[in-house]
C-alpha cells in the first residue's frame, strides 16, 4: 500500500515548496516553507493563483507517481525507505519537466534506469551492476506498427543492411573493370576463397548426383555461408550490434532452410522420402517405434544449427563483455597514475577478442556444413556413396 | 536472498564445462593418434579436428549461456 505525501489544502493553494515527514509517525506534519528560486522561475507573479495551483498540483501528482513506481521497483525495502528514496530523488522540486522526465525514465527502464541508479546512490548503496545481456537489446530505430504487428526498422535491420552493403561493395570493387588481376591481391583472394569454398562444399557433402544438379544448390549455399561469415565478425566491431546472437534471427534462417530441404526431399524422392526414417536391416516389429523416434531428431535438425550459432555468439560476447569489464576495473584501479599498467589488461582483451573472432568464423563454417549435411541426407536418403580416389 | 540464489545457480551451471573440456581433449588426442598413423593426411584431419572442436565448444557455450542467464535475467 503506497504511502502518499500528506498534503492539505493550504499547501495546495500556496506556492511554497513542501517537505513531508513520514506518515507512520502519526504526528501533524508541519509544512516547512522554503521559497526557492524555482517558485519565481515558474511563476513570476506569485499573486496569480490559478496557474500556480495547477503547477503545484501537477508537481505533487508527479511526486506521488514517482513514489509509486519506486515502491514497485524497490521490492524488499520498508515503506519508510521508499519514501525517503522518493524524496531524495525528486528533491521536492517544482519543475514539471524534470519530474516528468524522471517518471518516464523509471516507467520505461525500471530497474536499469539512471533515475533508479541515482536513487540507490543517494541512499548510500552501491548501484546495481549492469547486466552483460544489455548489449543484446533490440531498439526500434524507426518505429512502424501496423495494428499490433511490429514492422519497425530496428537495430539488427540496420546492421544487416550495413553488412550487406559491405559485402556488395567488396565484390564490386574486386570485380570492377572486367575481373581484376591474374595474380590476386588480398581482397580478390578473399572473394576467390569464398567463391571456391562453396562448390567444394557442394561436391563433398552432397554426393551421388550429377554435376548439373549439384550446382543448383550453389547460390543457396553461398548465401548461407556469406550470411554467417560476414555477420559474425561484424559483431566484433566496437559498439556494433551482433545480429546472429539473436535466436530469432538464426532460427529464421535455419528453420526456413529446413522447410526447404524437406520440401525438396519430397519433390525429389516422392513419398519414398519417408523411408529415410527407417534404417536398413531393421526387423519388422521394431520398425514402428523406430520411425516415430526418428521423427524427433529430424525435427530437431531445424533447431540444432541455429542454436549452435546463437549460443556461441551470445555466450561468447557475454563472456567477452564480463571479462573486459574486469580488465577495465583493473586499468582504473590505480588512482594516481591511470594507464600506467596498461599492457596487462591490453593483453587480456587481446586474448579474448582473438578467439572470439576465430569462433565467429569457424561457427560460420560449422553451421553451413551442418545444414548441408542435412541436405545430403534429404536427397540421398540412406544410400552410401561410392567414393572414388583420384 | 535472490542474489545468493543467483550466484549459486550460476556456479552450479558452470560445472558442466568440465565435460566439455574432456570432450575437447578427446578430439585433439584422436587427432594426434591419427596423424601419427598417417602423417600424409595431416591437413585434412586437422580440418576435421577443428570442426569437432567447434561443435564440442558449442556445448560448453550452452552451459555458459545458462550460467549468464541465471545470473543476469532474474531481478
TrEMBL record, chain B:
Highest taxon of the lineage? Eukaryota
Q: Gene of origin?
A: atp9
Give any Gene Ontology cellular component: proton-transporting ATP synthase complex
Transmembrane region positions? Answer: 12-33, 45-74
Protein name from the UniProt record: ATP synthase subunit 9, mitochondrial
Regarding protein family, the annotation reads: Belongs to the ATPase C chain family.
Q: How does it assemble?
A: F-type ATPases have 2 components, CF(1) - the catalytic core - and CF(0) - the membrane proton channel. CF(1) has five subunits: alpha(3), beta(3), gamma(1), delta(1), epsilon(1). CF(0) has three main subunits: a, b and c.
Glycoprotein keyword on record: no
List the lineage, top down. Answer: Eukaryota, Viridiplantae, Streptophyta, Embryophyta, Tracheophyta
Amino acid at each position: 500500500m503506497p504511502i502518499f505525501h500528506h498534503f492539505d489544502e493550504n499547501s495546495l493553494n500556496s506556492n511554497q515548496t513542501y517537505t513531508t515527514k513520514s506518515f507512520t509517525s502519526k504526528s501533524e506534519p508541519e509544512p516547512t516553507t522554503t521559497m526557492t528560486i524555482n517558485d519565481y522561475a515558474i511563476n513570476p507573479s506569485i499573486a496569480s493563483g490559478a496557474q500556480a495551483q495547477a503547477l503545484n498540483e501537477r508537481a505533487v501528482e508527479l511526486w506521488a507517481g514517482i513514489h509509486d513506481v519506486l515502491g514497485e521497483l524497490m521490492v524488499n525495502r520498508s515503506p519508510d525507505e521508499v519514501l525517503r528514496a522518493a524524496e531524495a530523488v525528486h528533491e521536492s522540486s517544482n519543475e514539471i519537466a524534470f519530474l516528468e522526465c524522471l517518471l518516464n525514465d523509471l516507467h520505461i527502464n525500471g530497474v536499469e534506469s539512471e533515475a533508479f541508479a541515482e536513487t540507490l546512490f543517494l541512499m548510500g548503496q552501491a548501484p546495481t551492476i549492469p547486466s552483460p545481456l544489455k548489449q543484446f537489446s533490440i531498439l526500434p530505430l524507426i518505429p512502424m506498427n501496423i495494428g499490433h504487428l511490429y514492422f519497425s526498422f530496428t537495430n539488427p535491420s540496420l546492421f544487416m543492411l550495413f553488412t550487406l552493403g559491405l559485402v556488395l561493395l567488396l565484390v564490386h570493387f574486386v570485380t570492377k573493370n572486367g575481373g581484376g588481376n591474374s595474380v590476386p591481391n588480398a581482397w580478390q583472394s578473399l572473394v576467390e576463397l569464398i567463391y571456391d569454398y562453396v562448390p567444394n562444399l557442394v561436391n563433398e557433402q552432397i554426393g551421388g548426383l550429377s554435376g548439373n544438379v549439384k550446382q543448383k544448390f550453389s547460390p543457396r549455399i553461398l548465401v548461407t555461408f556469406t550470411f554467417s561469415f560476414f555477420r559474425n565478425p561484424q559483431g566484433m566491431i566496437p559498439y556494433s550490434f551482433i545480429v546472429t546472437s539473436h535466436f530469432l534471427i538464426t532460427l529464421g534462417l535455419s528453420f526456413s532452410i529446413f522447410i526447404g530441404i524437406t520440401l525438396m526431399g519430397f519433390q525429389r524422392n516422392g513419398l519414398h522420402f519417408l523411408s529415410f526414417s527407417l534404417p536398413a536391416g531393421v526387423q519388422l516389429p521394431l520398425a514402428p517405434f523406430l520411425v516415430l523416434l526418428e521423427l524427433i531428431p529430424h525435427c530437431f535438425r531445424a533447431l540444432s544449427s541455429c542454436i549452435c550459432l546463437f549460443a556461441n555468439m551470445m555466450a561468447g560476447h557475454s563472456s567477452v563483455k564480463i571479462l573486459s569489464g574486469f580488465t577495465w576495473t583493473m586499468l582504473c584501479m590505480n588512482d594516481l597514475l591511470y594507464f600506467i599498467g596498461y599492457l596487462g589488461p591490453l593483453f587480456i582483451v587481446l586474448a579474448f577478442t582473438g578467439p572470439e573472432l576465430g569462433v565467429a568464423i569457424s561457427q560460420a563454417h560449422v553451421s553451413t556444413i551442418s545444414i548441408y549435411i542435412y541436405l545430403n541426407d534429404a536427397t540421398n536418403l540412406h544410400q552410401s556413396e561410392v567414393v572414388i580416389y583420384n | 536472498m535472490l542474489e545468493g540464489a543467483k550466484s549459486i545457480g550460476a556456479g552450479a551451471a558452470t560445472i558442466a564445462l568440465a565435460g566439455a573440456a574432456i570432450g575437447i581433449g578427446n578430439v585433439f588426442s584422436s587427432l594426434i593418434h591419427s596423424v601419427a598413423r598417417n602423417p600424409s593426411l595431416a591437413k585434412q584431419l586437422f580440418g576435421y579436428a577443428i570442426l569437432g572442436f567447434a561443435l564440442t565448444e558449442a556445448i560448453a557455450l550452452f552451459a555458459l549461456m545458462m550460467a549468464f542467464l541465471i545470473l543476469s535475467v532474474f531481478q
